[in-house]
Every structure is written in C-alpha cells, then in structure tokens.
Design brief:
The chain contains nine helices and 13 strands. With 313 residues, it is of the alpha/beta class. It has a seven-stranded mixed β-sheet, covered by helices on one side. A six-stranded parallel β-sheet has the order 3-2-1-4-5-6, with helices on both faces. The longest helix has 19 residues. It is globular. The protein starts with a strand and ends with a helix.
C-alpha cells in the first residue's frame, strides 16, 4: 500500500507515525505548503517524493491512496480531486465546512466506488470503542452525554504552537467529533440547537459555543466548546448510561468514580490515529466500506449545516 500524505503539519506527522507501524505500507510522497517542510518530512519518513502541489502526487503511479491533513477549507475539493485521479482517500475531520460540499464528496465516492474515509478518530479511540462494544452487546444504553471541548487558542496557531495558514472552527471541526460520536453511540440525531458567544474581532469566528442534541433513542447530549479556556485542554466525554457512568479522555477511560478501566485489549493498539489508519488500509485491501466512511459520517454534516443556519439566523 503506497500512500501520499498532504499537509505535513502537527497532525500529519501523527498519521505518518501511525502508518510506520502498519505492515506493507510505504509512504511514497509528502505534500506540504512549503518546499522546506515537505523535504524535511519526506526525509524523516523515507518518502521518495515531495512537493508543494497535491497534483504532483496524484499524477504518480506509485501512489495508491492519499491522506489529507490540509486546511479544512480545502478538504472537499481535494478529496474529490483524489477520487478523480483514481486514488483512495482519507480526509481528516472535518469532511467539509458546508453541507453542499459534503454532499458533493459523497456523490463522487458513490460515482467512483473508491474508499473515501473521514478522520472521525473518536470512533477508533479504545475508550470509545469499549463503550460502543458494550452498547452493541446490549449491556448499556446512553441516557446522556456531557462533553467539553476546551482549548486556549486566541491566536491562529496549531497544536505545536506554530502559526497556522488557516482558521480553525468550533462548529465545523471540533463539534463534528461529538456530533458524529453521539449518533454512533446513541442513534440518529433528531433535534439540534446551538448558541454562540461573541465573534473574535481578528479571527472572525465564535470563540465559545453551546450545542444540545437529541437522538432517536431519546438520549440527549450537551456539548460545550471554547477557544477561550485557559486550563486543562482537550475534549472530555462523560457517558451517563442506564448501567454505569464512564468518562473518556481520548484513548483512556475511567468510571464515574474515576477508577481506571483497562482498555488495552480492545484493539491492536492504544493509539486512535494508528487504529484509524489501520482501518483505512484494511478497507482498501479488503475492498470494503471502512468504519467512518463518508457515507457513515454523512449525517453529521447535515446536523452541522442545520446548526450553522440556526446560528446565522
């Protein structure tokens, strides 16, 4: 499996680290915004090709699939370009930053039949897998999810503290994780409401947001998001179930009394990004639809589109 990666920033390198642990995977091309970064990352991970243009990778016959870790605003157009070139594609979350673009990507996947997967990592974190496995086994049912997504990001910087060339978004990026996960764990979302705080004068985005969701099962979700939080950073999920309470912090899980739950045997790795990439590679090799395919996460973007309309109104 020969893979090109576009967007060799902080998150791109997490994918490259994961890909190196998968047997039979070769990283053949690195695409980045600057030639210097593309060359440095290609050398670090042993890629034979590097460029600043995605089209250069798509034209190569030693590229079977592409992972897109590029700015959100480029995801839909680039995913479609990959499939037009006959390449399987995994596009990092979010699939798009509009409902119309999300529909266009799904239409292209259905037209080509290629694997098109979206990086909804929460489906793959061992903590959330453990909860999902108990739900599907009929052992627990979600009554409420209480989720906090908190960062301190009043300047346009990435996870490494480096300047970003694009602006992140609470709704179309960070809320997408929870909207999809809630539906994955509790059923299709049938009600959604949102309010947002003041718009940042320079970044042009809301820095605080609150979202309420209800699923067809009757479960509810309360999601609080902030780029203003100067404290513990990240996303914390509280599952209040009919048979237990569980708190997930990325790949780790505790019960309601903060007692650790061993999730080390849930999957072959404790790294959600690596597991996500393993699913992408396996789906291509096996000619099947992956978990977190564009079709499976598609409804998340319907909900985000509805919330955007509410907020604009």
């Amino acid at each position: 499996m020969r893979i090109a990666l576009a967007g060799a920033g902080a998150f791109g390198e997490k994918h490259l680290d994961g890909l190196q642990k998968i047997d039979g995977v070769e990283i053949t091309s690195i695409i980045s915004r600057t030639a210097e970064q593309a060359e440095a990352v290609a050398e670090k991970y042993g890629a034979k090709h590097h460029s600043t243009e995605l089209e250069d990778a798509l034209a190569r016959d030693d590229v079977d699939a592409v992972i897109l870790c590029t700015p959100t605003q480029m995801h839909a157009e680039q995913a479609i370009a990959c499939m037009n070139a006959g390449k399987h594609v995994q596009v990092e979350i979010p699939l798009a930053d509009s409902w119309a673009d999300s529909q266009a990507v799904l239409a292209k996947q259905q037209e080509t039949g290629l694997v098109c997967m979206v990086g909804h990592t929460r489906r793959f974190n061992p903590s959330h897998q453990w909860v999902h496995n108990r739900i599907t086994a009929g052992e627990i049912a979600v009554q409420q999810m209480d989720v906090q997504t908190y960062f301190f990001r009043r300047k346009n910087i990435n996870a490494k503290g480096q300047p970003r060339s694009w602006t992140d978004h609470l709704l179309w990026h960070h809320a997408a994780h929870t909207v999809d996960l809630f539906a994955y764990q509790a059923g299709k979302i049938v009600q959604a409401h949102a309010v947002q705080g003041p718009i940042h004068p320079e970044l042009g985005i809301a820095m605080d947001m609150s979202i309420q969701l209800k699923s067809e099962s009757g479960a509810i979700c309360t999601l609080s998001l902030s780029f203003n939080n100067d404290g513990p950073l990240g996303t914390f999920f509280r599952y209040i179930c009919d048979n237990g309470t569980y708190i997930a912090r990325y790949d780790d899980l505790v019960n309601g009394k903060e007692e650790p739950i061993d999730v080390s045997k849930v999957d072959v790795s404790m790294n959600g990004i690596e597991l996500q990439d393993r699913e992408f590679v396996a789906a291509i090799r096996e000619g099947r639809e992956p978990n977190s395919s564009v079709a499976q996460v598609f409804d998340c973007y319907r909900v985000l589109g509805q919330l955007e309309t509410q907020l604009a109104g």
